[in-house]
C-alpha cells in the first residue's frame, strides 16, 4: 500500500514538474517577445532622433 502511494506521488510529482516547466517556458517566450518588441521600438525612436539631428545639421 505504501509503495503504491509512493509511486503515485512520484508520478504526480513528475506531472506537476512537467506542467511547471511548460508554464515557465511559455512565460519566458512571452518575455522574450515583449523584450524584442521593446528593443524594436527603442531602435525606431533612436532612428527618428538621429534623422532629426541630421536634418538640423543639413539645414
From TrEMBL:
The source's domain of life comes to Eukaryota
UniProt-recorded name of the protein? Uncharacterized protein
Q: Which organism is it from?
A: Quercus suber (Cork oak)
